[in-house]
Amino acid sequence: MQSLMDTLPALQIELDRAEQARAKGNEGQARVCARRAAGIAIREYFTRNGTRIPNASAYDLLNLLKEDTQLPVNLKLVVDHLTVRVTEEFKLPVKADLIAEAQKLCEWLLNKNPKDLKDL
Question: What are the C-alpha distances in Å from 108 to residues 17, 23, 94?
């Protein structure tokens, strides 16, 4: 099991890769890296909350997170954005900054104490 000390550097590496890909004009790779960063945070969140999760891809973990009743509505929208299919032109059909949204989701997941969920 990965500890939070291992999770944070791995998460930051993916977010940095996302920014680097965007800087090179490769928005598709930026999306993949943002999704992987979210997957790292989701795995840590579920593990910390005692939920056994399959060895799943970041995309699968995002879909699993959609079912979490504790996830605020605004973050469910973020999850939707991170899992939406691109158009035939490889463009997102929604206006969203997936890197910023992934960061927001990761921060919530990593800072949420299960005992605090009832306070939302």
Answer: 21, 26, 22
Alpha helices in the chain (DSSP H): 4-23, 27-48, 58-65, 73-83, 98-111
Q: What is the pLDDT of residue 78?
A: 96
CA distance 62 to 65: 5
Closest CA to 41 of 89, 82, 91: 82
- What angle do helix axes 27-48 and 98-111 make, rounded to 10 degrees? 10
CA distance 45 to 105: 11
The full DSSP string for 5-16 is: HHHHHHHHHHHH
- pTM for the full model? 0.86
- What domains can you pick out in the chain, each with its CATH number? 4-119 (1.20.120.330)
Q: What is the pLDDT of residues 25-75, one digit of tens each?
A: 888 899 999 999 999 999 999 988 888 887 889 999 999 999 998 899 999
